[in-house]
Amino acid sequence: MDGGGHGRSSLLTMLGLGVLACNSAAAVYRSWGDVASVLFVVSATAALLLLLHFLRRFERARPGGDDRGKAKAAVWALTTLLTAMFASRVAPLMPPLVGVAVWVVAVATVGGGFWALFIGP
Domain tally for the chain? Predict the structure, then answer.
């Protein structure tokens, strides 16, 4: 994601963000009239953009620095939020046992992310 003088990387980043913006706008347009769905799309997009911002801060921070720790915590919190948001939308659409499995996988993913970022090597 770091543009650092590489036009191609910056162009790909802008292209990806453009696709995200178009996709989000289309989802809001299709969901117009359903306030909960529109709020879901807007908040998921905002959380994803914040995640990208903090990932970039994490990449640029010096190892062991206070900024790196704060960025790492923000990355984990935002990925946890996105995981919970998507699990809460998918699980009710599934048969009950599969819905439980969706939540189990979501919790395992959040726990694994916490371990990888804060506890593991």
Answer: 1
CA dihedral 102, 108, 113, 118 (to 10 degrees): 150
pLDDT tens for each residue of 88-102:
999 999 999 999 999
| pLDDT tens for each residue of 108-118 | 999 999 999 89
- Please indicate, yes or no, if residue 6 is contained in any of the structural domains: no
What does the alpha-carbon distance between residue 28 and residue 32 come to, in Å, rounded to a whole number?
A: 6
Q: Give me the domain span that covers residue 98.
A: 34-119
The reply to whether 73 falls in a domain is yes
pTM above 0.90, yes or no: no
Burial of 115 (0-12, 13-18, 19+ CB in 10 A): exposed
